[in-house]
Design brief:
By secondary structure, the protein is of the alpha+beta class. The chain has three domains: 1-128, Beta-Lactamase (2-Layer Sandwich), CATH 3.30.450; 132-234, 2-Layer Sandwich (Beta-Lactamase); 243-302. The protein contains nine helices and ten strands. The strands form two sheets. A five-stranded antiparallel β-sheet has the order 2-1-5-4-3, sandwiched between helices. Strands 7-6-10-9-8 form a five-stranded antiparallel β-sheet, with helices on both faces.
Length: 304
């Protein structure tokens, strides 16, 4: 998954490293713009994508679309992208921030509209469970957050943005035991201009929830850091499923160990009398040992 930001007035389009890889473009030589982005879209999908973008900008609504893109080498890829509008104080859309993922392998390399819609439905929960926000290096704060991010943290978008003047301020929303690790991971990533990933907990009205945050730097055409983008996903249900699977694995291992121990005991209990029988049978059949008929009957009767 890659992140992108379109500053509408400046016609400035910023891509994360993953987006360059998805579109097959060189990170240093290719400067993305809106027109160049449109040129990458398959001709049969271009009008539909542009119409959806125009609707999102005019109505200040979210944008979601599946389409085909054509890489410089002619390879066709299937993508799904979702974006949220960024508005000024007057409610005018000044930019779109979005995520894009390549679903070509999921659709087995063939573009089928019905199949792609099914893929979209499969991937949609991942998008819906993700909150998106970004901060600029000069402001060192959150400049934008999606509605879903604010909802996950039980506040409003404006309130969340205004409450954070430094990335470390975000830690007040987290579990006290996770705040130090979070601040350290984010600080190291921002200082080095590299991606970071961190997991943490948060106490909500519905109980304790688990989150995963992935931060990605957005660079301009010269490689200079423009902003940091974070995707935050609620992974509580996934962790619960992992815990259930781990418990099932442990129960299975305990069952196998109990079975092995039982078979070992049974084998030992069966082996001892059979060894006695074999030993006496060898004794009775040996030519080196001469026993009377009464003794042979006595020993045979004692072990039958």
């Amino acid at each position: 998954m890659g992140h992108w930001y379109w500053h509408i007035q400046a016609d400035s389009l910023s891509w994360s490293e993953q987006v360059f890889a998805i579109y097959g473009q060189d990170l240093l030589s290719f400067q993305p713009t809106y027109d160049r982005f449109v040129d990458t879209i398959h001709g049969a999908d271009r009008d539909r994508v542009q119409a959806n973008l125009e609707t999102a900008v005019c109505n200040a609504t979210s944008f979601e679309c599946d389409a085909r893109i054509i890489r410089p080498d002619g390879q066709i890829r299937n993508i799904i992208t979702k974006a949220q509008p960024e508005c000024d104080d007057d409610g005018q859309v000044v930019g779109l921030f979005g995520v894009v993922t390549d679903v070509t392998d999921a659709s087995f390399g063939h573009y089928k509209p019905c199949a792609t819609r099914r893929i979209c439905l499969i991937l949609q929960p991942v998008f819906l469970d993700s909150g998106i926000g970004y901060g600029t290096p000069d402001q060192a704060c959150i400049a934008f957050c999606s509605d879903h991010l604010a909802h996950m943290f039980e506040t409003g978008t404006r309130a969340l943005v205004r409450s954070i003047n430094h990335p470390g301020d975000f830690s007040v929303y987290l579990h006290p035991e996770d705040r130090e690790a979070y601040a350290s991971a984010v600080s190291e990533g921002v200082t080095a201009g590299q991606a970071y990933e961190v997991a943490y907990r948060r106490q909500t009205n519905a109980g304790e929830r688990h989150f995963r945050e992935i931060g990605q730097p957005i660079l301009d055409g010269n490689g200079a850091l423009q902003r940091y983008i974070a995707t935050i996903q609620d992974v509580t249900d996934a962790k619960a499923r992992e815990a259930e699977l781990e418990k099932a694995r442990q129960d299975l291992e305990a069952s196998v160990q109990a079975k092995d121990q039982l078979f070992s005991i049974i084998g030992h209990d069966l082996k001892s009398p059979f060894n006695n029988i074999i030993g006496f049978a060898s004794l009775l059949s040996s030519d080196d040992v001469v026993l009377g008929e009464e003794k042979m009957k006595e020993y045979a009767g004692a072990h039958c």
